[in-house]
Every structure is written in C-alpha cells, then in structure tokens.
C-alpha cells in the first residue's frame, strides 16, 4: 500500500487540472498550502472550488475574493455548469484529467457525484477518505480522478476537526477543553453569539453559556459537557458568521 502523501502526489502527477475543494464557511482553515506548493511546482493548473455556499449568505458570498476560485454547492448542484465551463476553459480544448483534493468532509465525493450526473459513486456519510484512485468520465475528453481526502496540517488537532466539521461532536475527545480553546481563539465572538459576558477564564464562559441554554446537571450546576457538545454542533451547522 502506497503511503498517503505518495498517493496524493500520484493523483496530482496524473492530473492536468487540480480542483481544491474548500469549505465556504472556513476558507482559510480548509485551504491546503502544502499541496498548493506541490501543485505549483509541478506546473499544474489549480482551481479552488468553494463548496457549501448554500450555508453562507449571499452577502458573505460576494465578499469572498479568492483568485482562481468558483463558488458552488455540490449538494444543491449550484454552479455545476459554471464549474464545467471553467474546467473546459482551463483545458483549452485539449483532453484533460482532473484531480480533486481537499480536506475530509469538504464535499469532494458529493462534488464528483454532482459532476458526473446520475451514475453515482458512494459518498461517505462520515469523515474519512477513499484509498483507491478511480478515473471517471464527466464529459467528452474530460476525466476526473477520485482522490483521497488530504490532511497536510502536521499534528491536526481536535480543534481543527471541529472547525472543519470533520468529526462528530460525540467523537471529539475532550469537548470541554476543545471548546474552551475555541472560545479563546474566537476572541469574544462566541460570547457575543450566545449573549454572555466575556471572561478571562473560558471555562467560566462555558458555564455561562450552559446557564443561558438552561443546561443544568442535577443540583442545578451548569452542564458544561452538554453545552460544549451543542456549541460544536451549532458551529458546524452555522449559517451565519459568528
Ligand atoms: P468528502 O469527505 O470531502 O468526500 O465529503 P463528502 O462529499 O462526503 O461530504 C461531507 C458532508 O458534507 C456530507 O454530509 C455532504 O452531504 C455534505 N455536503 C457536501 N457538499 C455540500 C454542500 O454544498 N452543501 C451542504 N450543505 N452540505 C454539503
């Protein structure tokens, strides 16, 4: 079995155009700089596919300024034709093989399905990645390689997983600790979202949020465990920017 990065590199080597799928809700967090470098050094064409645009507002969509990018929603089939046109323009009338890379859960499998229409390939209901590379025809002279999801952040943390929605809240190990870290990183935005006062101690903020949500343990103490799980779920399912 080839190593993971080796497999990704093989996909990049085998493609003419690379689509890097990123999450519209967390563009910076789901861009993969390491891979960008690799793609550029191999002189391949790179197009960012900003997916899940149905989860952000039109105002937010129009604020996105990213070169070589296209905004889509793979589940709603928004932007399919635009994407195909863009791919054709990049292919300049030649045959082209398209590689799809991106973090887990950004919607690569859904996008592939959407691109190839009715003949469906399985999309994974949970995070994870496909190990095999398959070549699928999407149009005359255009083929897409189905690729594994790509991790490049060294030592990916549970917070990264939370931010990109790659793990179920139930499966994150220490949700209170992760959310405490999240509260600090968001610099007041979490407090604002839940209408609680800011505090130096993020665990205190978590307690306040539990109280606002009326999540109490027996005896009336704030249930910070349940609150932290809810915060993660609400962040992952958010439609607006916090
Ligand atoms: P992959 O791991 O990158 O292959 O991601 P999947 O294609 O398996 O998608 C991960 C999850 O995101 C699934 O639950 C999809 O239904 C969902 N998803 C994919 N694209 C979109 C989209 O455009 N909008 C929304 N709301 N959800 C999406």
Q: In short, what is this structure?
A:
By secondary structure, this protein is of the alpha/beta class. Helix 8 (175-185) packs across helix 11 and helix 10 (202-212) crosses helix 11 (224-236). The protein has helices spanning 4-14, 27-30, 33-41, 58-63, 80-91, 108-116, 158-164, 175-185, 189-194, 202-212, 224-236, and strands at residues 17-23, 45-51, 69-71, 96-102, 134-139, 142-146.
Could you list some keywords that capture this structure?
single chain, 14% strand, Rossmann fold, binds guanosine-5'-diphosphate, 2 domains, 6-stranded mixed β-sheet, elongated, 242 residues, alpha/beta, 6 strands
What is the beta-strand fraction?
Answer: 5-15%
CATH architecture of the largest domain: 3-Layer(aba) Sandwich
The SS-based structural class is alpha/beta
Could you name the CATH class of the largest domain? Alpha Beta
* Low-pLDDT runs: 120-131, 148-155
The main sheet comes to: 6 strands, mixed
Overall average pLDDT: 83
Cα-based radius of gyration, to the nearest Å: 20 Å
The ordered string of helix (H) and strand (E) elements is: HEHHEHEHEHEEHHHHH
**Structural domains: how many:** 2
Number of helices: 11
CATH topology of the largest domain: Rossmann fold
Give the strand order, joined by hyphens, for the main sheet.
3-2-1-4-6-5
Q: What is the distance, rounded to the nearest whole angstrom, between the alpha carbons of the first and last residues?
A: 42 Å
Shape: elongated
The H-level CATH homologous superfamily of the largest domain, spelled out, is: P-loop containing nucleotide triphosphate hydrolases
Small molecules bound: guanosine-5'-diphosphate
- Amount of helix: 40-55%
């Amino acid at each position: 079995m080839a190593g993971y990065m080796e497999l990704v590199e093989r996909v990049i080597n085998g493609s003419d155009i690379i689509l890097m799928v990123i999450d519209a809700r967390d563009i910076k967090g789901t861009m993969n700089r390491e891979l960008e470098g690799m793609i550029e050094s191999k002189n391949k064409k790179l197009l960012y596919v900003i997916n899940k645009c149905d989860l952000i507002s039109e105002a937010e969509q129009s604020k996105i300024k990213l070169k070589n990018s296209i905004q889509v929603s793979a589940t709603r089939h928004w932007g399919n034709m635009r994407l195909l046109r863009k791919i054709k323009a990049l292919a300049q009338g030649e045959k082209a093989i398209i590689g799809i890379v991106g973090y887990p859960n950004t919607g690569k499998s859904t996008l592939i399905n959407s691109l190839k229409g009715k003949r469906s390939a399985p999309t994974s209901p949970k995070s994870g990645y496909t190990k095999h590379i398959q070549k699928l025809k999407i149009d005359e002279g255009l083929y897409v390689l189905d690729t594994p999801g790509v991790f490049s952040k060294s030592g990916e943390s549970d917070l990264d997983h939370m931010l990109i929605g790659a793990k179920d809240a139930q499966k994150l190990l220490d949700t209170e600790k992760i959310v405490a870290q999240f509260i600090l990183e968001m610099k007041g935005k979490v407090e604002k979202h839940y209408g609680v006062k800011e505090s130096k101690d993020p665990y205190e903020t978590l307690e306040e949020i539990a109280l606002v949500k009326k999540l109490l343990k027996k005896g009336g103490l704030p249930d910070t465990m349940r609150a932290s799980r809810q915060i993660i779920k609400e962040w992952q399912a958010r439609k607006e920017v916090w």
